[in-house]
């Protein structure tokens, strides 16, 4: 029996449709799955504690040979609802913004948008657990994931980073993608992708299995705000985001499935 593939995936609700697909498929038997907050997923893939991960795309340049193995991701085509800056005052009146320690991508996205789009002079601070309580007066915070659900009605100023990125660039966005640091068996990748697709087909059923969120409609979130297909537009956005993060970056991202398709076409 081959060794199982060690997989790290995001523990948030937005990943459940993808996980549901994996569990409904025989591919589940090939995986040793661990669920973590995004910054830990990133760390596990980077340090070799996982072979494959649904990881924040901001860490791709830190990986030696990154392969994007899937046609599915955690993305958005504008508003995303769960990646926002919350504040009691408008952005231009803020002095400090805490950056969520769960995140790797959105903290970089916030830096880019503050610099290029909002153009406000604000100090960005690293956050510790419990930092949500510091959202007061001239201090705001970037928060991501399930902890943001229902927060929209609690703060007078809410800035959605997916929406701001679309207004700034005209592009969708990719927050997290399935990345491996070594080439995986193409047949495995195809089974893995087919399973993810099945999960998305089951969103209407899955809604019944997940805990209802106060002031937050999960079905709309999964079908309107989170956008799972890794489209050409999202790939373009990913390349632009990595360039804006670090203009000197030379990372070459390999798209495993595309390479397979291309090589099949070439045969
Ligand atoms: C849209 C989201 O995207 C998340 C944002 C991430 C980040 O900022 O590093 C990483 C994984 C994604 O799950 C979310 O979970 O709210």
TrEMBL record:
<dbReference type="GO" id="GO:0009234">
    <property type="term" value="P:menaquinone biosynthetic process"/>
</dbReference>
<keyword id="KW-0474">Menaquinone biosynthesis</keyword>
<comment type="pathway">
    <text>Quinol/quinone metabolism; menaquinone biosynthesis.</text>
</comment>
<protein>
    <recommendedName>
        <fullName>Chorismate dehydratase</fullName>
        <ecNumber>4.2.1.151</ecNumber>
    </recommendedName>
</protein>
<dbReference type="Pfam" id="PF02621">
    <property type="entry name" value="VitK2_biosynth"/>
</dbReference>
<dbReference type="InterPro" id="IPR003773">
    <property type="entry name" value="Menaquinone_biosynth"/>
</dbReference>
<dbReference type="GO" id="GO:0016836">
    <property type="term" value="F:hydro-lyase activity"/>
</dbReference>
<keyword id="KW-0456">Lyase</keyword>
<comment type="similarity">
    <text>Belongs to the MqnA/MqnD family. MqnA subfamily.</text>
</comment>
<comment type="function">
    <text>Catalyzes the dehydration of chorismate into 3-[(1-carboxyvinyl)oxy]benzoate, a step in the biosynthesis of menaquinone (MK, vitamin K2).</text>
</comment>
<dbReference type="InterPro" id="IPR030868">
    <property type="entry name" value="MqnA"/>
</dbReference>
